[in-house]
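Narrative of accomplishments. A recurring question from our advisory board has been how the design workflow behaves on a single, concrete structure rather than in aggregate. To address it, we present the structure tokens for one chain from the evaluation set, followed by the sequence designed for it. No filtering or post-editing was applied between the two.
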């Protein structure tokens, strides 16, 4: 195990060196898709076969020439609040492992940025993506949402647990107040589902559990039983809609289910179920987690090493899948010790196949829509890849050293 950890530490060191040179600004898979003409072609492609073909060719070019296409179209690197939250949490974890003040300095640096860059249009603190993104409706850049805000909240929570300073806990309480203004669909007296943003109602299991877990966590710490109760109702909704085989669809009813079950969203759900089980000791949550974990490890990895995109599709092999499977299985290894071996396998494969000599991680390996052949998309995505890999690798080191 010592050689495996040494390899992880070397990889993480290279990533940190690259990050030091690059800074926190970077590209994102969705920044180029926010361009008005790309959004127009995307919308037309849903209605017209010609524009559908044009869209596929355009997206293929974006994947094959990701850096050049962004420079050509004037897409600029940006600092992403979710990346900053993930970086901050990773730096806290690294400080807890190595007791090196440089990691605490980095954690404080990223927290300072977050302190200054929440959405000021709400009475409570919420964080957002720096680009427009398309959901049921167009979500303008700067619109706070539950996924980014809980990732940021987790960083403040880690700082609170590290330092004991109330200012970090107060921000966590502000986060909870923001989460409670997200639309809640009352499915029944005992089930609710939170929506992604304040802008529209939707039903997505991973978001619902991120919100639920954070409300329960902070609610228990601060004596807010109403937050704990609300969080548990959201948990009830998701576990009630788990498939018989243990899987979770990305969407939940009354959305029209697409049968879409992918690697990293499944891992998000499992990681949050485990966190919720630790907070609540709910046996039904544990049973749901066990079923989900068994489905995950049996369907989302090739030879317990290569993270598949879906149970039936190997490609795309996405850095997001690699990073979150490392992060999730590291966390779950407390309950499922065998998960740690798979985690090291995935980390080893990812380092060998997706880490550049400069230290950053590529977007992933895609199968061409045109030729059918695999190719590597060699771009550093600051939120999608680099921040998540730093978080995943730091968590694996932390679990391996049993800090």
């Amino acid at each position: 195990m010592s050689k495996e950890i040494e390899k992880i530490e070397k990889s993480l060191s290279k990533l940190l060196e690259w990050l030091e040179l690059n800074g926190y600004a970077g590209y994102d898979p969705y920044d180029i898709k926010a361009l008005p003409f790309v959004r127009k072609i995307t919308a037309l492609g849903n209605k017209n076969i010609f524009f559908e073909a044009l869209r596929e060719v355009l997206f293929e070019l974006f994947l094959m020439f990701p850096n050049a296409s962004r420079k050509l179209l004037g897409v600029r690197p940006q600092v992403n609040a979710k990346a900053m939250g993930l970086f901050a949490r990773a730096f806290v974890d690294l400080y807890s492992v190595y007791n090196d003040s440089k990691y605490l300095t980095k954690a404080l640096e990223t927290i300072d940025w977050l302190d200054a860059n929440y959405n000021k249009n709400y009475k409570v603190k919420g964080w957002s993506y720096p680009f427009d993104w398309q959901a049921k409706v167009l979500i303008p850049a700067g619109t706070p949402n539950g996924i980014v805000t809980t990732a940021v909240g987790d960083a403040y929570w880690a700082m609170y647990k590290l330092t004991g300073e109330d200012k970090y806990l107060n921000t966590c309480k502000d986060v909870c107040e923001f989460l409670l203004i997200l639309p809640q669909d009352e499915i029944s007296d005992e089930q609710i589902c939170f929506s992604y943003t304040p802008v529209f109602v939707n039903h997505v299991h991973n978001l619902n559990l991120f919100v639920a877990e954070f409300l329960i966590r902070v609610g228990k710490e601060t004596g807010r039983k109403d937050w704990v109760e609300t969080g548990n109702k959201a948990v009830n909704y998701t576990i009630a809609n788990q498939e018989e085989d243990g899987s979770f669809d990305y969407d939940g009813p009354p959305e029209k289910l697409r049968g879409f079950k992918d690697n990293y969203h499944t891992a998000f759900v499992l990681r949050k179920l485990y966190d919720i089980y630790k907070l609540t000791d709910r046996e039904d949550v544990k049973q749901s987690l066990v079923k989900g974990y068994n489905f995950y490890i049996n369907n989302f990895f090739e030879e317990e090493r290569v993270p598949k995109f879906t149970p039936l599709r190997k490609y795309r092999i996405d850095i997001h899948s690699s990073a979150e499977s490392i992060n999730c299985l590291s966390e779950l290894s407390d309950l499922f010790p065998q998960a740690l071996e798979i985690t090291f396998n995935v980390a080893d494969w990812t380092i060998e196949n997706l880490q550049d000599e400069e230290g950053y991680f590529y977007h992933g390996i895609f199968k061409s829509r045109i030729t059918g052949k695999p190719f590597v998309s060699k771009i550093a995505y600051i939120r999608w890849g680099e921040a998540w890999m730093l978080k995943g690798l730091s968590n694996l080191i932390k679990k391996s050293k049993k800090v």
